[in-house]
Amino acid sequence: MRFGLQVNPYFPGPTGNPWDSVASVARAVDESAFDSLWLYDHFLYEGGYSGHPIPEPVMECFTMLGALAAITQRVSLGQLVLGVPYRNPAMVTKMATTLDLISHGRSILGLGAGWHRREHEAYGWGTFEEAPVRMRRLEEAIQVMLTLWTERPASFEGEFYRLDNVVENPAPIQQPHPPIMIGGSGERVTLRLVAQYAQFCNVSGDPATVERLFSILREHCDRLERPYDQITRSIYTTVILGRDEAEVATKRERLSHFIPTKGALIGTPDQLIDTFGDYARGGCQYVVFRTPDWLDVEPVQLFAERVIPALADA
Predict the structure, then answer these.
(1) Is the C-alpha dihedral spanning 129, 131, 134, 140 positive or negative?
(2) Contact of 113 with 84, CB cutoff 8 Å
(3) Of 5, 263, 283, 314, which has the fewest Cβ atoms less than 10 A away?
(4) At CA 271, angle to CA 269 and CA 272, rounded to 5?
(5) Does domain 2-310 have CATH number 3.90.220.20?
(6) Where are the domains of the chain?
(7) 140-159 b/e with 16+ CB inside 10 Å = b?
(8) Alpha-carbon distance 180 to 138, whole Å?
């Protein structure tokens, strides 16, 4: 089992500049046993959301990932996940290729249909479409990206997007393209899109739920004649780690407002090892998590030192 850390919220930290805090934890992750570092793709958090109770600074993810690529050497970098309605997919392809080049082949492209109606409408990006339309838009965006990366020249005509005889240049380092992650637990559409197009899935839930979702993914793969083992099966969650029971109790209370309504995985290293073992037995190969006290760096290092090695063969 491999692990990635998602950095959020973007706390200002001691300098008052949230980038300084992200850069500091990124360097620590790069020197640790973590496999990857992830950023969310948002523009506006005004407070009152699950896990985001107060107004917080928000930075643009692709800009930050380019900067992180330049100051790290080893760790993979991705978005969990990019809101497709926010950007033209041809532009996203160029941005993803650029990130892959800056990082020397360490990028993962995370994609999703988007959910944050308030930020979409606040920034004037038009009417926020209903879920079925956004899912059609997501699939078509993926088709545009794959067309640009695999056809020379590339042309495309769809419901939402078009390409006119484009030769994408330069090519990304990872061939034929950076791995694509599709985030979401939708059984009929999202997991079908994973089976058809992606190299990563990312779902959420308790171990039993996750095991069931992976079995549905396998069914989609079988129907589409796609090898199930070509897809890395990952989950997303929130983690709060304490060295002992007393510290766990203190953090549980202090960070309670940052725990999402769907819950979090909270415990000592040994307790979290047991929990992630349950996920591994259900078919999970990869875990990406956020931890509300990442700014301290110490719990991130503790997780890397105690939890990750114990699950290396899970």
Answers:
(1) negative
(2) yes
(3) 263
(4) 65
(5) no
(6) 2-310
(7) bbbbbbbbbbeeeebebebe
(8) 12
